[in-house]
Amino acid sequence: MKHRLKFTGKKLIRIGILLLGVSLVTFLLMCASPLDPLQTNVGQVALGSMSAEQVERLEAYWGVDTPPVQRYLGWLSGVLQGDFGTSLLYRQPVMTVIGERLGNSFLLLLAAWMISGVLGMALGVTAGAFRGKWPDKLIRGYCIVISSTPAFWLAILLLMIFSVWLGWLPVGLSVPAGMAAEAVSAADRLRHAILPALTLSITGVANIALHTREKMIDVMESDYVLFARARGESELSVVLRHGLRNVSLPAITLQFASVSEIIGGSVLVEQVFSYPGLGQAAVTAGLGSDLPLLLGITVITAAIVFAGNLIADLLYGVVDPRIRRGTARE
Amino acid sequence: MSVSFTQYGRGIRRRQLPVIRDLSLSVGPGEVVAVVGASGSGKSLLAHGILGILPYNSCMEGKIYYDGQVLTRERAGKLRKGEIALIPQGVTYLDPLMKVRDQLTGGKRDKETLDRCRRALERYGLGKETEELYPFELSGGMARRVLIASAVMQNPRLIIADEPTPGLDVRAAKRILGHFRELADEGAGMLFITHDLALALEVADRVTVFYAGETIEEASVSDFAGAERLRHPFTKALWRAMPGNGFVPLRGAQPYPGTVRQGCPFAEQCERCRRECTETEQIPLRLSGGGKVRCLYPEEGDCTALGAEIGKAEAEDNSAGHAGREIAR
Fold this sequence. Notes:
The complex is a heterodimer.
Chain A: H1 2-32, H2 37-41, H3 44-48, H4 52-62, H5 68-80, H6 94-129, H7 134-147, H8 151-165, H9 186-220, H10 223-230, H11 235-272, H12 278-287, H13 291-319, H14 321-329
Helix pairs in contact in A: 1-13, 6-7, 6-9, 6-11, 6-13, 7-9, 8-9, 8-11, 9-11, 10-11, 11-12, 11-13, 12-13, 13-14
Chain B: E1 2-8, E2 14-20, E3 25-27, E4 32-36, H1 43-51, E5 58-61, E6 64-66, E7 69-70, H2 73-79, E8 84-87, H3 100-105, H4 111-123, H5 140-152, E9 158-162, H6 170-185, E10 189-194, H7 197-203, E11 206-211, E12 214-220, H8 233-240, H9 275-279, E13 286-288, E14 291-293, E15 321-323
Helix pairs in contact in B: 4-5
């Protein structure tokens, strides 16, 4: 137990450094951005009709006149006191915006994460067990086609088929347009989340299935599987007892590492479906030079991805007898 | 028996790579037959071929007889549940994430299987606590004993031990060999695959020598009393290379699979190689002095004490396993 606490402590120090680095890089990229916040958000025509005093006030609002180092340090000291600042576009505290957006995206991300994990592992194990035979060829073919398909293109394709031609599912947004917030039912929210979640799952499956297949092939070629066969274990028993067991460890890593890909994918997919989630907010903040919001979103998503990897590392200690029993004996 | 692999050459050209060209050997009940050969001579493939667990890109020709009947892949599948057992090389043959007991019982949880597992482990001095251990918690010697226990759990009639001793000191290795002798004395046929001639002579009744995927000699252990009773030049060289017999190394190396097109594979290293040795399509395995040899001129040189036990080799009809031969293409 002491070992695991020490391990977690070390990881937490590391995440602190990582988040600092991520925020700095984001800030520097924003500084290097050629977009002028005033021109983008206020417009050339409106700017031209304003008095010098008004323009000055706007410049102060968007932070154009403050030196970058001062801006970053100001943001950092705020964050350290628990204040992520106020979004310049939404005129709300950054944390409120992120909380609301994350709440919208959560269902979407979770569903996509679970579906792609379970389905990807099942397909990967099947392909690995039937290596070179038709189920393998079929699954591999599917995965390669899907991995080389851009997520946003797939999203548009699904949108065309299910929303435009068949009319089964809504075209976009997370709730029906023009409906009062109280009247929106859970079923409505679900219907709106299906297509984005499906897009994210389909693309996520391919990656996980291909990786699992490789692991499965390694397992099936291992000495212990050979010996299990030599002892007369059936092919099914070999796959279920030895295959699944030994694939499950790398699968944990893969599953939690895929958090980052799902979040990354959601940026594009939410844009296509006009889904008001975290991904869409990130795009809006980036294009609108909303520095506090963008920094907030980057830091929060980085923390989520890091937490995913940390959970995977900790789960290893629980699942793998070599780590569990090895550290217990120290 | 012959085994070949499909291999991809340059680009997408495929070729058949003959790894085992012409193997033949037999094992009788209560007998320990040692298979001696350098690494890469096809020893392990022989074991996998008998058990019907060759890799997917391989192709086996020829016939294996078990109990007088042809051993097909299907029949091997049934027999390896009990009658034929494998003792593999080491701890990597145990699933790293599964407890010893679950590996030995194959997942069965009935009392009878659990009892048999317990007894098999006890026979080799492994207590109840071993059942709960994972492979990484076993010492090298313990792992070896677990693997043997796994083989005897089913009371097999043919046991194939594939290099079961590397990494063990002489005393531990001899203890393992003692277990093998014991199993053979209880009536099982024992195929002991090794690269260590000294160990093979320690325990075996007969020795079969492999070279580049061919059986080149079959001899009884008593033939190894001196080089003059051995038949094939490679076996003689092997004998002379033993520390007690001069420690003379043999120059050169065994040819890589697929490089020998015709003739004697040993020709490159043989001091007595003649023109016919490389021109004959396939050198036949001939009876010679109670054993067998694959050499055109085995009588040459210091080979004198032949012809003593002709006929013994034919008395193998009751053999538990017999690998017939067929020439590979």
